[in-house]
Amino acid sequence: QVQLVESGGGLVQAGGSLRLSCAASGRTFNTYIMAWFRQAPGKEREFAAAISRGGAMTYYADSVKGRFAISRDNAKNTVYLQMNSLKPEDTAVYYCAATPRVLNSAQVMGVIRYDYWGQGTQVTVSS
Asked: Which of these, 15, 67, 78, 121, could form a disulfide with 9 (CB 3.0-4.6 Å)?
């Protein structure tokens, strides 16, 4: 089992940047696929980005591709989401998620595929 704690959210103007962090407990961090999801008010939780166990493979939603970058440091049990060129429509609660499952490139985007979730961190982008 793993516990996830996100940090780094806040209020930023459109065009600005934020870096989210997600710290994981336990000694098996490198056995988990890690991902970031987000949920805006009144909307369903949606996939943003995912990264493979070793960090070699990354996956992005079309809406964030080219602006967001996911990375991980297995020595620090931490996954990051660098968010650049932020837009008001990026406003949401951002959640870190983890799964020990073997997933293909389509499955990594599915909310139901992830077993562990953080409490979320609010990101607000003003226009």
From this structure: 121
